[in-house]
Write the structure tokens for this entry.
Amino acid sequence: MRLGELVPAPVARLPWGVLLLLTAIGGFGTVVLFSAAGGSVTPWASSQALRFCIFMGMAITLSWVPARIWGAIALPGYAITLAALFGVEMLGAVRGGSQRWLELGPIRLQPSEFMKPFIVLAVAKFYDMLPPNETRKFGAIWPAAILIGLPAGLVMLQPDLGTALMITGGGVVVMFLAGIPLRLFIGGALGLALFIPLAVNYLLHDYQRNRVLIFLNPENDPLGTGYHISQSKIAIGSGGLLGKGFGNGSQVHLDYLPEGHTDFVFATMAEEWGLVGGLLLILAFMLLIRWGMNVAHRAPDRFSRLAAAGLATTIFYYVAINLMMVMGLAPVVGIPLPLVSFGGSAQMTTLICVGILMSINRASTRQPSW
Amino acid sequence: MSGPIKIVTEAAQSFSFSRRATMLGFMQAGVGVLLASRMAWIAVAENERYELLAESNRVNLTLLPPRRGWIVDRAGTPIANNRTDFRIDLIPERLTDAEGTLGKLSQLLALDTEALNRIRRDLQNARGFTPVPVAENLDWDRYASVVVRQPELPGVAPTQGYARNYPSGAAVAHLVGYVGGATADQYKETKDPLFLTPGFKLGKDGLEKALESTLRGAPGAKRVEVTARGRPVRDLETRRDVPGKTVRLTIDAGLQEYAARRLGNESGTVVVIDTLDGSILTMASMPAYDPNSFSDGISQIEWGMMSSDDHLPLTNKALQGLYPPGSTFKPATALAALRSGIDPDRTVYCGGGYQLGNRFFRCLGRHGSVNLHRAIARSCNTYFYTMGREVGMDAVAAAARELGLGAEYPLPFPSQRYGTIPDPAWKLRKYDQKWTPSDTLNAAIGQGYILTSPLQLAVQTSRIASGRRLVPRILADTPIVAPMLDVPPERMELIRSGMDEVVNGAGTAVRSRLQLDGIRMGGKTGTAQVRRIAGGARGGMNVPWKYRDHGLFIGFAPVEQPRYAVSVVIEHGMSGSGAAAPVARDVLTYLFDRQRALDSLAVLEENWGGDIRTRMAVKADAYRAARANPAPVDPAADTATPPSGNTE
């Protein structure tokens, strides 16, 4: 490799393709935020770009951590994060309201964000430790179920349906990849189909239930909860093939589209860049996720394989749930579009996932070509 | 490898992983394709729909009320037109200090407390950027005084619009009606946003109401880009309004105003019809309101004054007043006799009345031996009692209908009353009673159950004058339909010559002869009893106004070649010859010699205390003064039966 002769080996060994892809997505997100602020770097674009650089540095740093370390810290990290979740739950109860974050000086950290990668690592570690023979026994299921159920339940109490879904999804996908019998998943899916109507009626908060009901028929409540979905579809639909042009999106500039810089940033982008911009962004995310899945395929050991596939899937959940929500295919559950939506949490979680993936990638015998 | 794996090895596990991971990868790719196609569907297939929605989000349409079409007379003189209206609105969202601004405005515009309370109420109900009207119809000075101070009055929006203007004021009130703001119910019915636009007025009565769709036009629109909260960002293009169409009437505006003025302080109507084509040249009903002040919405005080006036200034009496025609009906009875083959030279002896069983029906005098001609000229009841009995009520009613009485005409007015031409079948239907000979006698002289409107009387006269079935028309572009009547022309001529005699011979209206060379007016007076007064006393000077007889007159001129037909009804005018015939004379004089008519009117108006506007103002002031400090008004005077007009 000629590049290796010109630059120091550690730099040359970085997965440049992925870094470029991430930078492209993050850069595009910054541009969209610049337009959403009416053509201004404040208040969103500049701080988003700064944070992106910081978290990219963090991801590169993580990529140098030896892959086996992740297996070692999986369970302790999970335990600490779970304790933090308990902590905020207690604090919230004490303060008499919902409390999702810990304030550590200037940074507000949501423990539930850290739980998204750690649930994957913890469940992967559990199946790594489990002797292959035990995989098809009941003992292979209930510890993982508890590992997943505790944090998901705590997050549901916050209440944060979207994050709870992602934690559950992250854990369950690792169980699936670990070889838990397929019929359990099919049975589980059937059970869920029966359980969801009950959950909607009895477990969800009023506003969450409303979102689900409005999702089924947004035109019923055009000025209430359905307003988000309607305005988002208007923004995407009116963008057409090529969009209205950079800085010309009326939906976000005239405040018709709520949260056009956070959860609904994709609609903001689609209005100005059209179908072309949207498809490019979807393609970029799909490439990123495919790269993650390829890292899993090539990973040297069972833990790395499970962890890599779970982390890639976590990123996939972000993108898929957000886009389905924005396009009116899923209820509004408050999942941001990673690297594009304004806000540090999803950005950080995504880049932690990418950092660990790069670390596992580095441990593979050879670089996956993609 | 098929079938369950009993013992799971690491190799098997690895294989299972890559199989499942691949499956997962495909599922993820599937979701990606789903998302991509969903987006393509929204952005391409449904693009048009969403573009419209985005545009309707972005653009706020402010309607500009259309200029109303003019109403002009036959010569094109405006009866209703538009003048520039200076108005002030408030934009609630931009108000910083509502009370302070209102205080300054009330100083500048001299707003009274009633108006201020209304504005406060509107402000509370107003949302966002919908303007609240403060004052309209301002004069330039007042308007300018606000415009100059606009920088210190945030939220105050002075605008120029158009307001309805009626140059002749009260003289045309009942004819054209008036305009006013739309009611909440009207908006609910139509959901037309124009109805909520400040400054928009629609027809409330008369032709303004009936011809609304023609006169309205299409609103213009100001397009403004607004944010989700309604804050205007910038002005986009503005579409001009399409003014309503001009409507040309058959009315002669000068004649209309003259007739209204000539009615003076009386409560009455004048209708003039062109006997060539049925055109209504004038249809005056007085007293009336000033439609100019009605457009702005009248005050409680004005309304109270109008609705308590026993001269009924709010009623169009030409179309809605119903009166027993009295002797003006006699030409119809004469026609019935002629159509039934009665010889016009046959004489009936009048000894002062007609004996029917044990009842004696009076005549106004002892006319001796009368034929048809003399009977009309002298208005001999005995002759018409006799003829009525001889030809029967069905024949009389048929002749009356042939002359257009009891009919509803195809005129563009919101309401017309068509009165009653009774016959035996009608009485059975209405009262479940048999028709009696005494009913026939009463009907034959235009009393009893007969009720007609002043317009119908004029139509009757125009048909007698022309011999044709004229249909009254008021829109200049309506087709003229006038076949011959079912009467030989020479027979109709007999009736006309009787009517000629009424005015120009030894008749009841000789004092109202036209003072014009070579032009004679033929006519027929009528005095209609308002209520039967015991002892046979007539309703003259010695009874309260509202029980006095109505004075009626129908006439046409010139006698030889009739061109104009007129009907005049003076409510409680006591007699047709004294009250109604002189008005008809002057109105017809106006048509032949304008200056002479205006000169004689000038003398009259001086005695009445000025023109219509002046007298109405004096009356309103007096009313207001009386309301302000209630003078000792005798309370018993006005508590009896409702004002008449429709009494049989």
Observations:
- Chain A has one domain: 68-332.
- Chain A has 15 helices and two strands.
